[in-house]
Amino acid sequence: MKFTPARICQLLFLALFLILFVQTEYRGHDDLNAAVNTFFRVDPLVLFSYLLAAKSWTWLLFPAVLMVLATLALGRFFCGWICPLGTILDLLTARIRKTGPVMALKGNTKYWLLLPLLFASLFNLNLAGLLDPIAILLRGLTFLFYPLLGLAAKAGWVELYHLIGERRDSVAPVYNAIRDNLLPFRDTIYPLAFLSAAILIGIVALERFETRNWCRNLCPLGTLLGWLGRFSLFRRVPTTLCSDCGQCRELCPTGFDQNALLKEECILCMECQQGCPHGRISFRPSLRLNISPPLLPQRRLMLGSIAGGLLLAVPARFRSPEKDTRLLRPPGVRSEDEFLKSCVRCGECMKVCLKNALYPAAYQAGLEGIYTPMVIPRLGYCEYNCTLCGQVCPTGAIPVLPVDAKRREVIGKAVFNKNHCLPFARRIDCIVCEEHCPIPGKAIRSRTVQTVGLDGRLTTVKEPYVVEEICNGCGICENVCPLETRSGIEVFAVKNRIPVLQQSAGEG
User: Fold this and answer.
1) For the segment 433-475, what is each residue's pLDDT rounded down to a tens digit?
2) Are 76 and 45 in contact, with CB atoms under 8 Å apart?
3) Cα–Cα distance list, 52 to 114, 117, 140 (Å)
4) 302 to each of 41, 124, 309, 374, 394, how far by Cα in Å?
5) Last residue of some domain: 270, 289, 308?
6) Which residues contact 437 (CB under 8 A, 6 or more apart)?
7) Domain assignment present for 458
């Protein structure tokens, strides 16, 4: 491996990505000083899809505006110097012998991915996060590989403890340091984990055919950056292969499918300059703007992309009304439509969720909601004092809220299922849900009633009930219900997510 300036920069940004990824985790603190969402906030694909879908502005994405300006000035340097997925491809596949390009991926394939995504965003369907390279990498790590690392590390330390016997106390501080600073807070394998990993592995497998196959022929972010880079005044000299050499074709990872270097394909890795045996190559600014081939795609590609975006937007919005009743969003999300227009589907909120309440939606929210976070109370609940999910959201789809405001945000409303709840169905006292309700005035209370028991005798039972005016739908009641099958109390989504006016302890 040659440590060129581009390679050193790649390794530094990959290290930064991994450090921020590990830090985007609950480490015993209520506030996160840094998170991996920084990479999404400099992502032009996230910027353009957000602007087209939400039709509004957020200052959270201002760094992406700076990246657009830098690309217009310098070219497609992000792919060759910063992108963590591109760096991983370079590191993992450098020694793989290539079999030759897949011709079906050549030509306009990348535009058939990028343009329908952008037009779908224009029609209020933001699916760009499904194919964004940073989101693909982050989902693969979050949903499968990082939890597997935690499970493997814990299993390995257990075996080590068995081997060293009484000396285990001497290595315990080492494990504690690794656990507290490197391993995941919990080892949860998420729904869609294997699909996320398969997509990531498939991108790596494409390297079997040619170097940076994903980046050249498919990546929507790379395609967008390449299009912006065509306006760059920073250019390679000479722009074509030398007639007596041609070594650049072997060195360049993306740009020399033809004899001329296309600016939209060049990732400014400088490999050709470093490896030129004659020292002829340089990269320099030029006041002459030469855009070739034509700036805009063919008319049929544009029309097909508009039609593709519309065809994505219309059926993607269909989902069963029955499933809407259990589609619970993170705290602070009040409008489902606005949330879907803004969500990047990165999975960061699920990674930091303190009580394991957030999971990626699959069929529950239809195609438009795939990979978006949803609360599943039977598996976890929204911690009353936690605001981590809003802190890590790249676009503000989940708003950052003060703790007091977050406590009042409505996720849903709890409803008793009288066919399952023990006091109703079996005439047995049970106030577990009331005991665990975190709201000071108790959104779940009980009253003593006389009723006929299952044996036909008159009995006294404490019947629970929900005070809807102060219930915020955190889900702890459903989570702690002692019934092993379906819970006796369930949280259902509500259309009105206006914050509740909570009572203090002892009121009501």
Assistant:
1) 999 999 998 999 999 998 887 888 888 999 999 999 999 999 9
2) no
3) 13, 10, 27
4) 28, 18, 11, 35, 30
5) 289
6) 443, 444, 476, 477
7) yes
* First-last CA distance in the chain: 70
DSSP string of 192-212?
THHHHHHHHHHHHHGGGTSTT
> Two tokens at 9?
């920069």
Q: Is residue 416 part of a domain?
A: yes
b/e 457-488 (16+ beta carbons within 10 angstroms → b): eeeebebbebbeebbbbbbbbbbbbeeeeebb
**Per-residue pLDDT tens for 129-155?**
999 999 999 999 999 999 999 999 988
- Residue 229 structure tokens: 């880079």
Domain count, the chain: 2
* Cβ neighbours of residue 298 closer than 8 Å, sequence gap 6 or more: 108
Task: Give the pLDDT confidence of 318-338 residue by residue, as tens digits.
Answer: 666 656 788 999 999 999 989
Inter-residue contact 382 to 474 (CB < 8 Å): yes
State which residues form the domain around 283. Answer: 231-289
Q: Which of 273, 289, 305 is the last residue of a domain?
A: 289
